[in-house]
Design a protein that fits this description.
This protein has eleven helices and 14 strands. The chain is α/β, with parallel strands linked by helices. The strands form two sheets. Strands 1-8-2-3-7-4-6-5-9-10 form a ten-stranded mixed beta sheet, sandwiched between helices. A hairpin with a 2-residue loop joins strand 9 and strand 10.
Length: 334
């Protein structure tokens, strides 16, 4: 559906707004008329569009400057809604019952009669689905009754937003509405798994850890270490992603003059430059929640390089290290 005079007037009326019933209703009308709405989830803020409307989905790719071959995650209210778009086998149902609503996305075979825009799936025979836990996201999904395609609300490859102000700084007036739910509780994007033929494969580390998934299933899952792809089957697989303007240097014990320090834990080296500690106590959950905001703060310090201290590679540390490695990767236009 193309934009109408009514939808254009909504753009003028709705910017960063709170979370009243009127705000949710206005944002729902914007989605229904083909506009984009930024909204909070427990992971990061998403840039949402009606996933049934190809023109609206195309607007997401344009706003983010995102390559069309990179598929989108579609947000749904619950497992029963997900069944309208994907084939939900016993393993996928078990994972949904364990982790939905919550920060787990599943890449599943599309139904033959799936009505989602083909742009959402990047022409693949699979679709990525998630039921978010954030109450504002749930209210928006239930108010519209629509599946909402919603990647992170930032330019493609850049730092993900964890506050409404981050969305405005990154995207300006492109969304018709920015629903403000405060800082995101988790602060890292959802875990993504592919479920096919009863097997589960980790595609992106996130807040639901590999150990969580293995405990729910009672067996190991496949982990393709170091996986990157120029033809991704899920978001977060491009080699360069989550990147600040500054370069990122990993596993640093002694930052150099002129760098900014992304610290972790109580034992921080003496340093005169900009420092943000993800967690002074060494708590990985706290570190994850602070990660993107810390990157953004250090990127705005004027330093040309961000030196990152080592992060333990277990539990949520796997997700943080995945984001750091992609932030440090060679940039496509470098």
């Amino acid at each position: 559906m193309s934009q109408t005079a009514e939808s254009q007037s909504l753009s003028a009326d709705i910017k960063i707004v709170a979370r009243s019933d009127n705000d949710i209703a206005g944002a729902a009308r914007a989605l229904e008329t083909g506009e984009l709405v930024a909204f909070p989830t427990e992971t990061v803020y998403g840039l949402g569009a009606n996933a049934l409307d190809s023109a609206a989905v195309a607007a997401v790719f344009a706003a983010k400057r995102r390559p069309r071959f990179n598929p989108l995650i579609v947000h749904v209210a619950d497992l029963e809604t997900a069944r309208n778009y994907a084939q939900i086998g016993l393993v996928a149902q078990r994972l949904a019952e364990a982790f939905w609503p919550g920060p787990l996305s599943m890449v599943l075979p599309r139904r033959d009669d799936c009505r989602l825009s083909p742009l959402v799936t990047a022409g693949l025979e699979t679709v990525a689905l998630r039921s978010p836990a954030h109450p504002i996201a749930q209210r928006l999904l239930r108010r519209t009754g629509l599946p909402i395609a919603a990647p992170s609300a930032n330019r493609s490859g850049k730092i993900s937003p964890t506050r409404a102000e981050d969305v405005r700084a990154e995207l300006g007036d492109l969304p018709a509405a920015i629903l403000d739910g405060g800082p995101c509780e988790i602060g890292l994007e959802s875990t993504v798994v592919r479920v096919a033929d009863g097997e589960v494969e980790m595609l992106r580390f996130g807040a639901v850890t590999r150990e969580d998934i293995e405990a729910a299933l009672g067996r190991p899952v496949k982990v393709p270490w170091g996986q990157t792809s120029d033809a991704p089957v899920s978001p977060g697989q491009l080699s360069s992603h989550y990147a600040p303007e500054a370069k990122v240097r990993l596993n640093v014990s002694a930052p150099a003059e002129g760098e900014a320090l992304l610290a972790f834990g109580p034992d921080v080296p003496t340093f005169e430059g900009p420092v943000v500690n993800l967690s002074e106590s060494g708590d990985l959950k706290e570190a994850a929640a602070n990660f993107f905001a810390a990157l953004r703060t250090l990127d705005q310090s004027g330093a040309t390089t961000i030196a990152a201290m080592p992060i333990p590679n277990q539990g949520l540390g796997e997700a943080i290290n995945d984001r750091l490695a992609r932030a440090a990767a060679e940039r496509p236009n470098a």
